[in-house]
Design brief:
267 residues, alpha/beta, Rossmann fold, 7-stranded parallel beta sheet, 7 strands, Sc_DH/Rdtase_CS, SDR_fam, NAD(P)-bd_dom_sf
Length: 267
């Protein structure tokens, strides 16, 4: 088991990528703090994992002191903290025309500021365990889709924060900070989001090679599998790194001939 004996906080882990990560780290021997907003879903995750390996905390991550309460729960339950996975995020469509200050602040609070302050709350214990932080970003950090302005800004800021802390915290205290940028992932929320945009119920089964060369998009479990290296001791002294997890390169990609084909919309 690659994470045997470790205690890990995974934010936003009542569903989607976070849930997959939480289940995977437990498979690899870790104990996990489950966090999110959906209590019923969180209870289900704990039941699936087992109450001896998982504890649940339901709270908006942007609440004052929320990060400290997650850290306190880990310490009170298992007496140590080895890693944080900053996965909780809000994906919301916006452009320059409809992004106001309040909206942008809300996105930044969840996607950028909350991860920073959770790291700060956990730092004394991560120093003690020579632990690790893994931030879950997005390939939108590089520029983003035209209707994901605020979200893309927040993930770009998170990426810069990862590189900054990945250098400073490792030099000062031996705490590694890295990031993975998932591409298009088939989560529960993504399925519903695209249906709300007018796509057919089976949109993810009819994808163009332009968007999914494999004929499908990435599963949450595939992202979860990639996190284990960064959370384990196998990654050694590697810190301040950002890795894209998508089916095609973000730079220098050749556009396929069927690039005009999009998933079928409802009539």
């Amino acid at each position: 088991m690659r994470l045997k004996g470790k205690v890990i906080i995974v934010t936003g882990s009542t569903m989607g990528i976070g849930k997959a990560i939480a289940k995977k780290v437990v498979e690899e021997g870790a104990k996990v703090i489950i966090h999110g907003l959906e209590e019923d879903l969180g209870i289900q995750v704990v039941e699936e994992i087992g109450a001896e390996q998982a504890k649940l905390h339901i709270e908006d991550i942007v609440n004052e002191g929320a990060g400290q309460r997650l850290v306190d729960l880990a310490m009170a339950t298992w007496g140590r903290l080895d890693a944080i996975v900053n996965n909780a995020a809000l994906v919301a469509a916006s452009t320059i025309h409809n992004t106001d200050k309040a909206f942008l602040n809300r996105i930044l609070d969840i996607n950028t500021f909350a991860p920073l302050f959770l790291i700060k709350s956990a730092l004394p214990y991560l120093i003690e365990s020579r632990g690790a932080v893994l931030n879950i970003g997005s390939i939108n950090a590089w520029s983003g889709e035209d209707n994901l302005l605020a979200y893309s800004i927040s993930k770009g800021a998170l990426m810069t924060m990862t590189r900054n802390l990945g250098d400073s915290l490792f030099r000062e205290n031996g705490v590694r900070v890295n990031q993975i940028n998932p591409g298009w992932v088939l989560t529960e929320k993504e399925i519903e989001r695209k249906k709300e945009h007018g796509l057919a119920d089976s949109w993810y089964k009819e994808l163009s090679k332009m968007y999914a060369p494999a004929g499908r998009i990435i599963w949450p479990e595939e992202i979860a599998a990639a996190t284990i290296y960064w959370l384990s001791d196998e990654s050694g002294p590697i810190s301040g790194q950002v890795v894209d997890l998508e089916q095609f390169p973000m730079i220098g990609r050749n556009i396929p001939k069927d690039s005009t084909t999009i998933p079928h919309k409802k009539n």
